[in-house]
Amino acid sequence: MGARGPIPNRESDLARPRSRKGSDEQEAKRGLMRPVRIPRADPDWHPIAKQLYESLKKSGQADFYQQSDWAYAYSLCDDLSHYKKSKTRSSMMLAALMSAMSNLLVTEGDRRRVRVELQEPEEETTPASVLAIADYKKDLGVD
Fold first, then answer.
1. What pTM does this model have?
2. Is residue 72 part of a domain?
3. What share of the chain is helix, strand, coil (3-state, %, to 5)?
4. Is there a domain that residue 46 lies in?
5. Residue 76 belongs to what domain range?
6. Average pLDDT by stretches of 10, the chain with 143 residues
7. How many domains does the chain have?
8. Is 97 part of a structural domain of the chain?
9. Do 104 and 57 contact (CB within 8 A), yes or no?
């Protein structure tokens, strides 16, 4: 999916945009997003697997998930649940689970490696013209 290596800086931390650096990165191919139905978490999963799955629903990267991504996340959480419930845990299985989570862009580092940055929502501000009219009405004693 993304390149390995050090986690790139956020775009806002760079002195100039990456597009101006003359890199040989090609533009992404475009497709249409389809409607998505997110499967319910299995109630029998380990609590950590359920927590991960529920957090994926609420996380910003879910804006990019399609049906296949949710099927992949479901399968991953099912495997994670089996791993967590197991009496003997394999380090190889844990490594595979962590790698799979990286494919879903679970951590900020994973997202930054593929140039996906989640932004804070902008505060809704009232336009100055609306505030000025409200002040005039207040001065005139009009509600």
1. 0.68
2. yes
3. 50, 0, 50
4. yes
5. 37-117
6. 64 64 61 90 97 94 92 96 95 95 89 80 74 78 69
7. 1
8. yes
9. no
